[in-house]
Write a structure and sequence with these properties.
Layout lengths: L1 H17 L2 H17 L7 H43 L15 H23 L11
Helix pairs in contact: 1-3
Length: about 140
Amino acid sequence: MANNNWYANTAKAASRYAGRPVTFFMAALVIVVWIVTGPLFGFSDTWQLVINTGTTIVTFLMVFLIQNSQNRDTEAIQIKLDELIRATQGAHNALLDLEELNEESLDTFRTKYQALATTARRGLLTGQRDTDTPEA
């Protein structure tokens, strides 16, 4: 658990810093310095290899950082949605934690709600309201 905590804290801090304007300008400065030094190194293969290697390493690490950040954000949103469902009178608690279900179970729920949406849209065309609960 301690290793996971270390990674989570490091990923959060790195995400915070990577998204700041100063970080962008530092990266842009590195590129400008690289371009300016091109003539000094005769635009050699080694000169090109430096920027290619650096950007590849940064990109490789950022993929994991972005995925961690998205996973954390998605999990937080799912928990908040679960709480809204749980706290809403008349909401179906069976919809809690849907993201953990297999595709077949999700398809069953999706089919049910698509049918409700189709019925509601037809009702709107005939002047019916669309603000009640289907069970009422």
